């Protein structure tokens, strides 16, 4: 980060962060406050390693900037996006609220700086808006970089939450719970176990489709809240018990219980989507064939070796132990042969035998598999050469 000289107020000050995506085992689906993004029920997720999937965001501030501007994946976007505005407003509110000693020059400078304009440049190293939790990584990354720029200390997951609910869980590494809370101060994410707690866990994202999905999570979940009777039962009676069960399973490294709760949760999310009127379908035929495949794979040896979970889209996320990865991929690729094995496994390399196709399933071919693991939370990128913003304040 460029050193800020309090007298030279035109100096460009820039911070760059990276942030991870997270995949929920206990699903967030439905808000009781849509402005503040307070969820109907708690949720719990695993943060994924940034080596495979991450957002990277540079934020720069300078007195010479004429207005706030945002570039996402190389294209300028409207900064008037209400979610981005919520994050910026909350950030500025926190700075104003902070008690400060006027003789503290750097604090006075930060207070003044918060009135200048920002340039935000962000890129995702994976498809955006395709059900791969890009919004979670994106808003977590923005909040992390802005908090460092403005020296905001303490609890900041609630700032990420106003960008996108699931983003609050991407503020921590490892296994993370979002406590639903009642107001903006109590609806926060907490780490339940660090990333090295259960190192044998691996994650395979089976990408069936990486195009933009037809019904976004924000609209889909509120349609469910308005019209599904099952949803109320789920939030009050089912989720709290499942959160306790899965936390215990994670602490005890009890894969079978972890897997069973994860699969039932995914199925209940899609059941309340089906109970929405008119119904919402996120899974396609291939997704359903993948569910059948995982149950068959588990039945083969009469032990649960893999668990699936699906969010608001057709892509499956599979949790399994490292010792079962090769076997799963070989067996899976027999049933779901890709159109090409070139660039088929992305992320952590796997040496598996390319099988001769068995009886392939009908439906969409699988595009590729991302092989990853549980990883750390957001981080600052110290090397200025890695910044996405040049000395002129524009994207490099
Ligand atoms: N790096 C980023 N920085 C800022 N905003 C981002 C970033 N990445 C994504 N977003 C915002 O999130 C939106 C995509 O969110 P959306 O919920 O539609 O998809 P998703 O997060 O990929 O899928 P899902 O939430 O179902 O997993 C983008 O249109 C953009 O507004
Ligand atoms: C199915 C989910 O992935 C829903 C994610 O919803 P979002 O966090 O994208 O919704 P908004 O708060 O409206 O931005 C389940 C989950 O991640 O818990």
From TrEMBL:
Entry annotated with the keyword Acetylation: no
Keyword set includes Membrane: no
Keywords on record: ATP-binding, Cholesterol biosynthesis, Cholesterol metabolism, Lipid biosynthesis, Lipid metabolism, Lyase, Nucleotide-binding, Steroid biosynthesis, Steroid metabolism, Sterol biosynthesis, Sterol metabolism
Pathway: Steroid biosynthesis; cholesterol biosynthesis
Origin: domain of life: Eukaryota
InterPro entries membership: GHMP_kinase_C_sf, Mev_decarb, Mev_diP_decarb, MVD-like_N, Mvd1_C, Ribosomal_Su5_D2-typ_SF, Ribsml_uS5_D2-typ_fold_subgr
EC number: 4.1.1.33
Coiled-coil stretches: none
Gene3D superfamilies xrefs: 3.30.230.10, GHMP kinase, C-terminal domain
Gene Ontology molecular function: ATP binding; diphosphomevalonate decarboxylase activity
Diphosphomevalonate decarboxylase-like N-terminal domain sequence ranges: 19-189
Reaction catalysed by this enzyme: (R)-5-diphosphomevalonate + ATP = isopentenyl diphosphate + ADP + phosphate + CO2
A Gene Ontology cellular-component term: cytosol
PANTHER family attached to this UniProt entry: DIPHOSPHOMEVALONATE DECARBOXYLASE
Function: Catalyzes the ATP dependent decarboxylation of (R)-5-diphosphomevalonate to form isopentenyl diphosphate (IPP). Functions in the mevalonate (MVA) pathway leading to isopentenyl diphosphate (IPP), a key precursor for the biosynthesis of isoprenoids and sterol synthesis.
Family: Belongs to the diphosphomevalonate decarboxylase family.
Protein name stated in the entry: Diphosphomevalonate decarboxylase
Species name: Owenia fusiformis (Polychaete worm)
């Amino acid at each position: 980060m460029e050193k800020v000289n309090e007298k030279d107020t035109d100096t460009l000050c820039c911070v760059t962060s990276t942030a991870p995506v997270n995949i929920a085992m206990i699903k967030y689906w439905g808000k009781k406050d849509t402005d503040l993004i307070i969820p109907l029920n708690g949720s719990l997720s695993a943060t994924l390693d940034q080596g495979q999937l991450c957002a990277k965001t540079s934020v720069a501030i300078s007195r010479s900037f004429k207005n706030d501007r945002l570039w996402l994946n190389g294209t300028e976007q409207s900064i008037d996006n209400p979610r981005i505005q919520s994050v910026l407003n909350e950030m500025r509110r926190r700075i104003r609220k902070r008690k400060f000693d006027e003789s503290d020059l750097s604090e006075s400078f930060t207070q003044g700086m918060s009135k200048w304009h920002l340039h935000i440049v962000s890129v995702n190293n994976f498809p955006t808006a395709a059900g791969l939790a890009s919004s979670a990584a994106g808003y977590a990354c923005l909040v992390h970089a802005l908090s460092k720029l403005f020296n905001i200390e303490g609890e900041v997951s609630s700032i990420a939450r106003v960008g996108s609910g699931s983003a609050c869980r991407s503020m921590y590494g490892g296994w993370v719970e979002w406590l639903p809370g009642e107001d903006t101060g109590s609806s926060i994410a907490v780490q339940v176990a660090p990333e090295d707690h259960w190192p044998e866990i691996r994650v395979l994202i089976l990408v069936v489709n990486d195009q933009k999905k037809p019904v976004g999570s924000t609209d889909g979940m509120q349609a469910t809240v308005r019209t599904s009777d099952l949803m109320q039962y789920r939030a009050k009676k089912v989720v709290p018990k499942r959160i306790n069960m899965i936390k215990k399973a994670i602490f005890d490294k009890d894969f079978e219980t972890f897997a069973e709760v994860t699969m039932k949760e995914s199925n209940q999310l899609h059941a309340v989507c089906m109970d929405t009127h008119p119904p919402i379908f996120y899974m396609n035929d291939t997704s359903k064939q993948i569910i059948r495949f995982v149950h068959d794979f588990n039945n083969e040896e009469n032990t649960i070796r893999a668990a699936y979970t699906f969010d608001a889209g057709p892509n499956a996320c599979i949790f399994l132990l490292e010792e079962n990865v090769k076997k799963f991929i070989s067996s899976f690729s027999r049933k779901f042969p890709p159109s090409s094995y070139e660039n088929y496994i992305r992320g952590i390399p796997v040496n598996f035998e390319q099988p001769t196709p068995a009886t392939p399933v009908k439906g969409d071919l699988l595009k590729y598999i991302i092989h990853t693991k549980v990883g750390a939370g957001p981080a600052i990128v110290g090397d200025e050469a890695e910044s996405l913003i040049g000395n002129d304040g524009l994207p490099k």
